[in-house]
Amino acid sequence: MIKKIVYAMTAALILISVYIDFFIAPVPINPGQAAGDPNNFKIFYFHLPIAISAYLSFFIVFISSILYLRKKEQKWDIVSLAAAEVGVVFALLTLISGSIWGRSAWNAYWVSWDVRLNTSLILFLIYISYLMIRQAVEEPEKRARLSAVFGIIGFISVPISFLSVRFYSRMHPCVVGPCPGGGGGGIGGEVLYYLLLNFAAYFLLAATLIMLKIDNEKLKEKVNDIKRNNNL
Amino acid sequence: MKFLEIAKKDLLAEFRTKQMLNSMVIFALLVIVIFSFAFGNEATIYIPNLKKKIIDILAPGMLWIAFTFAGMLGLSRSFAGEKEEGCLDGLKLCPVDRSDIYNGKVLSNAVLMFLMEIATLPIFIVLFSYEIKNLPGLIVVIILGTFGFIFVGTLLSALTVNTRTREILLPVILFPVLIPVILSAVTATATMLANGDIADISGELQILAVYDIIFFVVAQMVFEYTIED
Predict the structure, then answer these.
(1) For strand B52-53 and strand B46-47, is the pairing parallel, antiparallel, or unpaired?
(2) Which among A126, A137, A167 is the nearest to B162, CB-wise?
(3) For residue B66, which of A74, A181, B28, B98 is within the disulfide window of CB 3.0 to 4.6 Å?
(4) pLDDT tens digits for B190-210?
């Protein structure tokens, strides 16, 4: 029952927020000298919440990997898998929406030595390899154990990657808090409310997808059990 | 100190045949030679705007590509060799802590890596008639970078040895995690090659040191899960 309420809320919030982003919300950041149409900057309403949802999903992978190694309960493995898959999709969407925005704001899809662009790309690559490890091991117990080890290592390397890419020049705007390169900042008023609405919508979307994936995996287990018991 | 025994066993086995070391050195040499052919004489062209030759810009990346690719050969065999004759089970039966196995493997891999690097660096200098300006600084960077590479590489080598596609999977999962090491090592090497002072690369050195320490500690904690069965 609670699940159904969450699913319904997700659907409603996503619809509302998409409508608001396109028809009601103002351009969120001062476009300045941007190359393209300033309205393109509205992609920010998707871009930031999707990126943060990806980070959160990867954090879930990290936590559930630790819990798996400590408790050896299969449910934590399923949670890691579900969160990693959803996180990879969201990370990819972050890269795509960022590139589209970059084309408009910087006149380039990709700026190769920017901190956040590269950190997002590294994050995406790390969790692609996480899924590859899962694919390469047959036995469920071993797969869970090995991927949990990588889930921990991969997540720890992310902040260090962020620090190491920091040596290069910055182009991506800082939205919250002070920015060393200047620029960015200044989100407030109605933009903030619309942004928070989008955050709620995309967090719920990520949570819903993870929950669906977990149910899916549990069903798969059940089917496998039935097959095994009936020698199919 | 039991990990010294394990490292000694590995190195003894290695130096009887020198199979791994030879392939690593020759592979690193080949990478450098191929770069030298690919860039040809253009590498020595001087760019007035940057006050640098093209080779100055390419050298650090080239060196680290040679080091990491050749090191990958050693890493992928490090546990695969143990697996083949059932030696890994023997190792696990040893009355030592699981992390001693890891430390021993780290030590033997690091020795092989350093020997390969010592052999590669002069060849690089000769082929590109290159002059290294700050050798002590470069050595510090190479030591820190190599340890970062080995700490994570040994752990992931133990992880991939249990998978179906071990030799293919290791580079694919290792490089994304290694990005901080490679980035910091390459920028630090660039400064060291161009007559930089060691104070100029304190940021990079800090990141390398932090990376080394964090992954060394984490590996001690999670290594036992990679070889458990």
Answers:
(1) antiparallel
(2) A137
(3) B28
(4) 888 887 788 888 888 998 999
pLDDT, tens only, A62-112: 999 999 999 999 899 999 999 999 999 999 999 999 888 888 777 788 877
CB contact under 8 A, A129 and B172: yes
**Six-digit token string for B180:** 């901080």
Complex ipTM value: 0.88
Q: Which are the contacts of B28, defined by CB distance < 8 A and separation ≥ 6?
A: B66, B67, B69, B70, B116, B117, B119, B120
Q: Are the Cβ atoms of B165 and A136 closer than 8 angstroms?
A: yes
Task: Say if residues A84 and A152 touch (Cβ distance below 8 Å).
Answer: no
Q: Which of A80, A161, A169 to mutate to test the interface with B (most CBs of B within 10 A)?
A: A161
A153:B177 CB<8 A: yes
Interface residue A71 vs chain B (CB under 8 A): no
Distance from CA of B159 to the nearest CA of A (A): 6
Residue B217 pLDDT exceeds 80? yes
How would DSSP label each residue in B44-108?
Answer: G-EETTTTEEHHHHHHHHHHHHHHHHHHHHHHHHHHHHHHHTTHHHHHHHSSS-HHHHHHHHHHH
Q: Amino acid identity, residue B162?
A: N
The model's pTM is 0.88
Q: Indicate whether A157 pLDDT > 80.
A: yes
DSSP state of B161: T
Helix (H) or strand (E) holding B143: helix B135-160
Interchain contact, B163 vs A165, CB within 8 Å: no
DSSP string, A63-95: HHHHHHHHH--HHHHHHHHHHHHHHHHHHHHHH
- Please give the torsion angle defined by the CA atoms of residues B29, B32, B38 and B44, in that order, rounded to the nearest 10 degrees: -140
Residue B220: partners with Cβ closer than 8 Å, 6 or more residues away = B99, B102
CA distances, B153 to each of A58, A115, B110 (Å): 22, 25, 10
